[in-house]
Amino acid sequence: MLQTPMADHAAPAVALAVRDLAVQFRSEQGVVRALDGVSFDLHAGRTLGIVGESGCGKSVTARSILRLIDHPGIITGGRMVLDPSTPREIDLASLDPESRQMREVRGGRIGLIFQEPMTALSVHYTVGNQLIEAVRQHHSVSVAEARNRATELLRDVGIPRPETRIDAYPFELSGGLRQRVGIAMALAGDPDIVIADEPTTALDVTTQAQILSLLRGLQEAKNISLMLITHDMGVIAEMADEVTVMYLGRVVEVAPVRQLFAAPRHPYTRALLHAVPSILARPRQRLSTIGGAVPHPGSRPFGCSFHPRCAERVGAVCMERIPDPVPPGQAGASCFRTEVPA
Ligand SMILES: Nc1ncnc2c1ncn2[C@@H]1O[C@H](COP(=O)(O)OP(=O)(O)OP(=O)(O)O)[C@@H](O)[C@H]1O
Ligand SMILES: [Mg+2]
């Protein structure tokens, strides 16, 4: 059985343990290691924030868990264990993506909320028809029962007049309402884990706050284990219990949210935090951004991948060796700086 060390005795069970996950995209141009040994724990009933700049591998992580990586991506190593250390434990990496078991996990155990709700919705069918089909994929109920359940789901996600709105087409709804339907679709199979990949990035600020508040309410009411992917430290502060910071396909820091904000250990985390607009900032003060861009994973820098952009390099070691990964199940940073005695 997979060992999942707990931070303390009060820590809840681990719902999903990802260990040493490696994903490559192979093409004629070469091999791109999009994920290179990613490990983290998603605790039951908690919100795990996954944060990092564009291209760090957040979506590839989400899609790997659901076994939905786009061709030519392949999982080349690692495990993704549901219900670890229980008799029900199952390694999703070992399943055939097309198998019945994996289709049941998708939607039935793990729901996925996309950045753009139209990824999950069709323009050709009413909201109700799509929700009814999603309900019936995971529950053997009549169409009438599924319709009642679909109406309930729309009410759960705060859609006004769900009895009428159920017959609307997605294009008749505003962006905010469409994302609410997207959330209802993710919940249709009663999953206990939900992965939300940048669920509010496409929305205006006010709608974003409403959707985050809805997600938090649903997560608490249904005791969902939520994996929330974002590039926005503000969203992390508001939503997450624990945080995994990713850089170029690797985990660079893991910490409880308060610890991450109070005492970030990795220079990349510190740089991300400095780039957050502060409510204390003067109105026209410029936002600081991290110098340089995330390199392409196909041309990963030697040594610590972050070293060319790092303002806190400790020496040649940063350019020559890869720092040890954060031990699974523990808080820490993958950085020579934290390994060097003060
Ligand atoms: N379909 C694909 N074909 C080839 N490479 C891909 C593909 N999808 C992802 N990658 C590689 O994986 C890397 C990580 O992509 P991913 O979509 O996970 O980033 P992300 O962290 O979700 O970024 P964003 O914040 O922009 O959504 C990309 O930089 C790219 O090199
Ligand atoms: Mg993404």
Show the helix and strand layout.
Layout (H helix, E strand, L loop, with lengths): L13 E14 L2 E14 L3 E5 L6 H8 L7 E10 L7 E2 L8 H10 E4 L13 H12 L4 H14 L5 H4 L9 H13 L5 E5 L7 H17 L3 E6 L2 H7 L2 E6 L2 E7 H6 L4 H8 L42 H4 L11 E2 L2 H4 L3
Parallel strand pairs: 3-8, 3-9, 6-7, 7-8
Antiparallel strand pairs: 1-2, 1-4, 4-5, 9-10, 10-11
Helix pairs in contact: 3-4, 4-6, 6-7
Subcellular location: Cell inner membrane
Membrane topology: Peripheral membrane protein
Organism: Teichococcus vastitatis
Distance between the termini: 38 Å
CA-based shape: globular
Q: Biggest sheet, in brief?
A: 7 strands, mixed
Classify the secondary structure makeup into a structural class.
alpha/beta
How much of the sequence lies in strands comes to 15-25%
CATH homologous superfamily designation of the domain at 14-239:
P-loop containing nucleotide triphosphate hydrolases
What is the name of the CATH architecture of the domain at 14-239? 3-Layer(aba) Sandwich
Radius of gyration, in angstroms, nearest whole number: 21 Å
Number of strands: 11
Output the helix-strand order.
Answer: EEEHEEHEHHHHEHEHEEHHHEH
The helix fraction, in percent, is 25-40%
Highest-level CATH class of the domain at 14-239 = Alpha Beta
Q: Which ions and ligands are bound to the chains?
A: adenosine-5'-triphosphate, magnesium ion
Organism: Teichococcus vastitatis
InterPro entries: AAA+_ATPase, ABC_Ni/Peptide_Import, ABC_transporter-like_ATP-bd, Oligopep_ABC_C, P-loop_NTPase
Protein name: ABC transporter ATP-binding protein
Family: Belongs to the ABC transporter superfamily.
